[in-house]
Amino acid sequence: MDYDDARVAATYRRARALPPSAMAIWQAMLRELVPPAGVARVADIGCGTGRFVPCLAQAFGVPVVALDPSTAMLAAAERRPGASYVAGSAEALPLAAASLDLAFLSMVWHHVREPGAAVAELARVVRGGGAVFIRTPTVDGLDEFPFLRCFPESLELDRRRLPSRAALEMLFDRGGFAVAAHRAVRQPLTDGPEEYRERVRARAFSSLQQISDEAFARGLQRFEAWSASLPPGRPVDELLDVFVFRR
Q: What pTM, to 2 d.p., does this model score?
């Protein structure tokens, strides 16, 4: 998926928006798992088009530093008062040592090319007692992503690139973090099946972008047939893992 393509960035911003009910879940969970007292600086690492910047700002009432390696994604982000948008990768964060109280990473970990280097960078920039909040799919929960049942090539790709829950916890443990919390969270992804179909048709998920056009066409035919049976107006959800690691 070419995140440096302005058209891809525009599609991502439009197709990956979450309904208000989902954002309310995440705002409440952020405040529960990372109590706002003492949180003065937050970074959204791998922010994409910044969909979680307002959520973070409202949850903690502090300025947010939004970082992403793609300048096209940053350019497509809606600017928010008090937020700064900076180009940078998880493996080489343009942040001072011990400058963060919270590092937030959403749907990013499977794009990190050097996980060990990223953990080392997080250990450098998060102060002692600070937290890393990761929102991610894992191989343990792949059966809970409805569209993948129709795209076997995408499913196999995700089996190779996604972390397991145990492996992610071990990686952070070796990097000097303790597991403060882990939850499997079911979130409403869309308000109904038609919106879900539009996301799949637009190949808004990176695992659909990375398979061949022929494989996508075969899977889309299966997906259209399966999704036609979904009740109109019923939300479509997915299962994500949440980890909070403490320095």
A: 0.92
